[in-house]
Amino acid sequence: MAAKKSKAKAVTSAQFQELIVKHLRSTYGTDEKKANDQAWWKATCSAVNEMIFERLTETQKSNAVNDSRAVHYLSLEFLMGRLTINNLHNVKVFDQAREALKALGKDINEICDEEPDMALGNGGLGRLAACFIDSLATLNYPAVGYGIHYEHGLFRQDIQGGRQIERPDSWREYGNPWEICRPESVQEIPLYGYVETVFGEDGQLRKVWHAGRKIKGVPWDIPVVGYEAQTVNVLRLWESKAADFFDWDVFNAGGYIDSQAEKSQAEAVSKVLYPNDETEAGKELRLIQQYFFCACSLKDIIRRYKRNHSDFSNFSKQAVIQLNDTHPTVAIPELMRILVDEEGLNWDDAWKVCNESFAYTNHTLLPEALEKWGVHLFEKVLPRHIEVIYEINRRFLEDVVEKKWPGNDEMKRRLSIIEEGESRMVRMAYLAVVGSFKTNGVAAMHSELVKEDLFPEFYELWPERFVNVTNGVTPRRWLLACNEQLAKMYDKTVGTDWPLHLDQLKGAAKLADNTKFQKEFMAIKREKKVELADEIEKLCGIKVSPDAMFNILIKRLHEYKRQHLALLHILALYRRLLENPDYDMGPQVFIFGSKAAPGYKLAKDIIYAINKVADKVNNDERIKGKLKVVFMPNYRVTLAEKLFPAGDVSLQISTAGFEASGTGNMKFALNGALTIGTMDGANVEIREEVGDENIFIFGKNCDEVKALKAEGYNPWDYYYANPELKAVLDWLDTDFFTPGKPGELSSIKNSMLDGGDPYLCLADYESFTNQYVNVDAAYRDQAKWAKMAIINSASVGKFNSDRSIEDYVERIWKLEKVLPKQ
């Protein structure tokens, strides 16, 4: 471990300009007069890559020489977004690059807009993984991120006639200057086939898996640049290819399409993020995806370990493998298979290595999100792994559960990794808990619910295994890069070290009452709102006033996140304005950004309803522009970077007890938005940091939600008890918003009444709308609002992903920093 941090060599704008021109000519074969913006962007990337790749090599050398313990972060999602501006900031050459491009007649923002989003994730899970690998590099911890090199990331969302249409997202259609292919580390992965029991040379029984098919895993490395670029780690993404991908004999015999069948089947594995699993073929592809990237990653980890070690006695001391949710859980039986079948360890020794190497992060309390795979599917695709899982389960039930609860067959049934029933299932979350030395939740409240509600018996067995690590976000992207004006204001106020030590922003809270500081802060907010208003007009054709209160709800579309509760509130406001055009409220804009899973009909219906209500509200002159509704298409990281700085109000309105943490709530608060939210996820901790008077809490808390459900929740009671609520729900049955098509929006009403309103929208409706009156009143007192916004922004230093990583290191990973030589 190096004692002192050295500073990177400074590069002047003139030097950076020379690098850009050099790569424009020698790397991309064009010149300043002919080059289009894409060539300029790639040349800029190549210029900064000269610094990044050099530091990547130094980082890898230092880790190899030190034989460092490293974390291997396995995640099916990495929602990286764009890297150019982030990397320029982290290498500390953003200003030089801007000046260099300006001297060449180019605007850095226009050039960086050429970069497609690296949308290799769905939402919070993938964005959190991106923040974590950023922080690991910034804090100089040895780490490798492992995932899948999807050809198509999360779909591109078009809105046609108000409805979501999914289109392919070809993020690397014209190449990606950040990634490097590593053919020297290709892995071969078996699938299908059968298992044979044989006697080994030592007379012991051995299991041999005869694969029916093999596919290749080709690694692509994306450098992960820490702030100030002392450490550059790697995100390694696996692309699937056929082992022998072209059959010449079939081709020459005229089977032009059949000759590539194996190639197409193999490449389907890394073709798309989350293939639709409503069909049996879709389920099979998803399981293969998960096994493919886990198996490739484990082979890679073992290959690296064997450079310095001849046996596995130190494996768990050198490698910790973090399972980001249940998707990578199949890595547990895969490591056991490798250790027992290929490396010759006995079961007990192999299990000790395995159990001491894995740690599991739980991200959800939703039963449908806790993956289960049919035993029949495992038997078909991974026949050896189901045998390993059976043996893990047998030993767990006989050696652990029986010892704790002797003779209690009901407890064995409840805790079994294999769920019995009409169709036997493998409970992947149970396998993750049993096979890991630590299980963590992602917010204080969530971690308690993991222990109390989700895994209470496992917690009783192993209380020392359960810990909390509250999520965080990287301030480098979510303030420094996306809100340059506010970042510079903080530089002047608290110094320039806050991107590494976010707690330093607390120094600005002392100025929350300062009129001059308030005006400067709110001027920046208005500037970001003007920019967003321009973007809304460009994308949606809707004009909104930057002087209106911007209420923003951006996250994955799911019933528990309750976008439809916000819609009911909008309908109520619209109804009040129609009944009384002078209704006392300040102008408000409600802005949504969200994607619905392709097979999730109600979520897609909610998007349609928001758009149809927007069409009516935005064009109704009777309400004098007091209310506007916007649904921004194709929500992604790049759009989020415009939305978070512009938000006045952050809607975090999930049903209490359902959101594990949330990270959008942190990004909004950091950029000076006030939260209206339930006591759910990280909202609870945000409230503790900013103070009760600077957040708007509504709705039933977790205990009240449980109690209401236990006593028998009846949404009809709320429907009949509140005339306004009844009126807006009944409105959805008419053709008021869908002329000539009555009932097109009825599915939303039906879900809340006939469907039982599982997420208690109607129970929380009155509290939500009443609290919004307080939000509106507070916003109209701009001096008060400015003070509250400043306190929010300056008080959320806790929610830095650097702090999260330090908690992981202390409570789970036990890593040491390694500083490469400069």
From TrEMBL:
Record-level Gene Ontology MF annotations: glycogen phosphorylase activity; pyridoxal phosphate binding
Assigned EC number: 2.4.1.1
Modified residues (N6-(pyridoxal phosphate)lysine): 667
PROSITE patterns from the UniProt entry: PHOSPHORYLASE
A GO CC term attached to the entry: cytoplasm
GO biological process: glycogen catabolic process
Keyword Transferase recorded: yes
Reaction equation(s) it catalyzes: [(1->4)-alpha-D-glucosyl](n) + phosphate = [(1->4)-alpha-D-glucosyl](n-1) + alpha-D-glucose 1-phosphate
Keyword hit for Glycosyltransferase: yes
Keyword terms, alphabetized: Carbohydrate metabolism, Glycogen metabolism, Glycosyltransferase, Pyridoxal phosphate, Transferase
Cofactors required: pyridoxal 5'-phosphate
Family: Belongs to the glycogen phosphorylase family.
Biological function: Phosphorylase is an important allosteric enzyme in carbohydrate metabolism. Enzymes from different sources differ in their regulatory mechanisms and in their natural substrates. However, all known phosphorylases share catalytic and structural properties. Allosteric enzyme that catalyzes the rate-limiting step in glycogen catabolism, the phosphorolytic cleavage of glycogen to produce glucose-1-phosphate, and plays a central role in maintaining cellular and organismal glucose homeostasis.
Name of the molecule in the record: Alpha-1,4 glucan phosphorylase
Source organism per UniProt: Alginatibacterium sediminis
